[in-house]
Amino acid sequence: MLSKQVGVKFFDLLRPVLTKRMEYVGKHDKLTPEQVRQLILDEADRNHAQWYSNDVPDLNYHLPACRLAYLYIVAAANATTFKWILKNDPDLYQHVTGIAKAKRQLNVCAFGAGPGTELLAFAKFFDEEKLGHAVQVEFQLLDIEKAWLDSWHGIRDAIKDHFRTSYGPDFSSWPMFPNGNFMDQDVTKTDELDNLGDIWSHDVFVINFVLSELFHDDPGFRAFMTAVTSRAPKGSRFVFIERRGGMWERRMTNCAKEAGLRLSPFQEKSGWMDPGDGELLLGEVYDQLSKAPGKGKSPRNSWRVVYSIGVKE
Ligand SMILES: C[S@@+](CC[C@H](N)C(=O)[O-])C[C@H]1O[C@@H](n2cnc3c(N)ncnc32)[C@H](O)[C@@H]1O
User: Fold this and answer.
1) In terms of CB atoms within 10 Å, which of 23, 46, 53, 55 comes out highest?
2) Is 209 a pocket residue for ligand 1 (Cβ < 6 Å)?
3) Per-residue confidence at 4, pLDDT binned at 50, 70, 90?
4) Is 11 domain-assigned?
5) Whether residue 87 has pLDDT greater than 90
6) What is the C-alpha to C-alpha distance for residues 71 and 47, in angstroms, rounded to an integer?
7) Residue 115 belongs to what domain range?
8) 151-188 pLDDT, tens per residue?
9) What spacing in Å lies between the alpha carbon of 111 and ligand 1's midpoint?
10) What number is the average pLDDT over the span 281-289?
11) CATH number for the domain including 264?
12) Best mutation site among 188, 213, 242, 251 for ligand 1, i.e. most ligand atoms within 8 A of its Cβ?
């Protein structure tokens, strides 16, 4: 093991992704760094207003500045939440570590996972678990917005760079090796599911802050979940994470009932970023975006959710 081994920190991984993409947007769209920052901060305001509009949020994920605003403000906090649940939910923990130890591979299907939040969480989780061998994490990503590919790939590459620096070039000594397949898929539409046959052989399915973007109790989403569940292996786990509130719990309950999943009791949890994993690790990006005249913003540094784990019986 190399002496330069350091733990995974979400803001550390996000720094190169944000830096490179902000530079690219400036160059490609012929904007000054200052104009790029203003666009990101405008989109951050817009995202916030839309998420709390009490209706289907109208988000600009097709625009790079909107996706960058999501990565800057939300991604690390949501990754911290999911990593916390992986570590602290006893049933999910046993399931994930049991499969990872037995197969050295974990198959994950994540709905609305374009940004790469769930990938960040697994990288930190397996780095902290120190299982003593590499785990190949095979992601099947489903997202309606294919432009998220830039962010998922950027995060994947940042994780590989981090593990290469910490553990050396031989990836069998890394704690995790990430792989991903991206499908631009609306999770409220089942039309093409039959053509996709039996690809749903995943150990873990993640539905992390997707219900609140669909907003309504969408019959199409319930049908999609039912179709996926019917093809998923027995014992697979479905992790539902949402903002708190009876409305979201009812959405999860309806969806699980129709799909035939056994749901664990709802858990309301909250927390902060892990010690040492703070926005200062974003360096220049944080300096610039937090101090922009009149409207500087900081990333979220806490989380507050309700979650439940569904089991395919
Ligand atoms: C709030 S983000 C959550 C991202 C990530 N799971 C997290 O927790 O950070 C919602 C994601 O769901 C995707 N999404 C929204 N509606 C969708 C739909 N109908 N089908 C598939 N993905 C959708 C968005 O593109 C976005 O990536």
Assistant:
1) 46
2) yes
3) low
4) no
5) yes
6) 12
7) 75-277+302-312
8) 999 999 999 999 999 999 999 999 999 999 999 999 99
9) 7
10) 97
11) 3.40.50.150
12) 213
Strand pairing category for 204-208 and 302-312: unpaired
Helix axes of 90-103 and 76-88: crossing angle, nearest 10 degrees = 90
- Pick the residue whose CA is nearest to atom 20 on ligand 1: 186
Mutation test of ligand 1: which of 146, 210, 239 has the most ligand atoms closer than 8 Å to its C-beta?
210
Q: What is the DSSP string of 70-88?
A: HIIIIIHHHHHHHHHHHHH
> 97 in ligand 1 pocket by Cβ < 6 Å?
no
- The answer to the question of residue 140 being in a domain is yes
The per-residue pLDDT for 295 is 83
Cβ(138) – ligand 1 distance below 6 Å: no
* Residue 7: φ, ψ to 5°: -70, 160
Output the CA 128–ligand 1 centroid distance in Å: 27
Average pLDDT, the chain: 95
pLDDT tens, 22-76? 999 999 999 999 999 999 999 999 999 999 999 999 999 999 999 999 999 999 9
- Our answer on whether the CB atom of 78 is closer than 6 Å to any ligand 1 atom is yes
E strand or H helix at 94: helix 90-103
Distance 266 CA to ligand 1 centre (A): 21
Dig out the tokens for 129 from the structure: 């678990």
